[in-house]
Amino acid sequence: MREVFDVARASGGNQNSVWVLSILSAVPLIMVLGNSMLIPVLPTIESELKISSLQVSLLITLFSVPAGIIIPLAGILSDRFGRKPVIAPALLLYGAGGLITGFAAIWGGGAYWLMLTGRIIQGVGAAGTAPIAMALVSDLYKKGERSNALGIIEAANGLGKVVSPILGSLIALISWYALFFTFPVLTVPVALALWFFVSEPAKRKDPPPLSRYKENLVKTWKRQGKWLLVAFLAGALTLFILFGVLFFLSDFLEKRYGIDGILKGLILAIPLLAMSSTSFWAGHHVKQKTRIMKRFIVIGLFMLAAGMAIVPFVTNTYILMADLVAIGIGSGLILPCLNTLITSAVGSEERGIVTSLYNSVRFLGVALGPPVFEALADAKYLLYLGNASLATITGLLALWTIKKPERIRNPHGRTRLIMGKKRLRTT
């Protein structure tokens, strides 16, 4: 908690209040509930609606895929018209999608496709929440405080993942479809608090034409595309593995041990708590030190590789849980460091779109995890050793592409970080 107060005091004025940082942290926390809260009840939904495992996994996929597609558009809108005018309506849309899904669930299995429609609407709303909140945090906090604040945001995201299986299991004691009615209860107060209590830096009255916006983005990608591509891959792969493993663990606990309800939620929360705690610590520790961020990213990817390589050969449940905790720790090392690198490496005019593109591939990683792990459940060596190989290759690419940061000044006079071999002077 002391770190939260340190960040809150760092930038002065209204923006430095713990209240403001708490509101911003609530956005990713609520967003992550959209998928994680359903994980422990997916087998129940499958049974109640009499649908297949693949069909029930679509409740995750059809939330994440639309979010991944719409996020870049939300980023463009936030760059041109402000972050709050995107985040607040998106939260309300996210809640409305939950209502539609909940009412469809009450009607029973015949309304399965309407449930999917509600999940799609939720995904569209989610596109304008956490990714844009990350860009807003980057606008509000500078230098070393930015990595600390982003670490808190990523920790809030992780905390949502920790709380959500337990919360999902508790709410499911009332009814499994009661989960979906939780979303509007949470999103409406946060949307109102964000609108009235968070002030963002003023945007220019006349937004630049889209052609200039495209030019800036193309220049950024040409200059830094090599390491940005690796960073995007690392973020997507980390969440692909994390959500795939959670889907596997939920099914494993129920089918092998008959563990369900709150106990299953508590067990699912263990690797997520490891990730959240590590994210909080890493965000506070790295500051703007690219060498440390690079080290954490590479170590985290190698931990994911080792963890995935071990899974097919483990028969002891306690060793399996320890392995999944190691995967959670590796994920916690990777994600806050990627957040800081990406948001600090681009100027404020294109920060929204670049951050959104990054979050888009993260969502796609989440979307693909459960169905791929389900489809390849019988080919466990291919699944787990293949992911271990991907994580190893990505770690080696990160080791090669992430360089010492530089600062240059763009034509509009704003200073930004770049990755390169030579240090340029700021003019």
TrEMBL record:
Keyword ATP-binding listed: no
Localization per Swiss-Prot or TrEMBL: Cell membrane
CDD domains: MFS_YfmO_like
Keyword Cell wall biogenesis/degradation: no
Family to which this protein belongs: Belongs to the major facilitator superfamily. TCR/Tet family.
UniProt keyword list: Cell membrane, Membrane, Transmembrane, Transmembrane helix, Transport
Domain Major facilitator superfamily (MFS) profile: 20-406
Native organism: Melghirimyces profundicolus
Protein's name in the database: ACDE family multidrug resistance protein
Gene3D superfamilies in the record: MFS general substrate transporter like domains
GO CC aspect terms: plasma membrane
PANTHER family per record: CHLORAMPHENICOL EFFLUX PUMP RV0191, PURINE EFFLUX PUMP PBUE
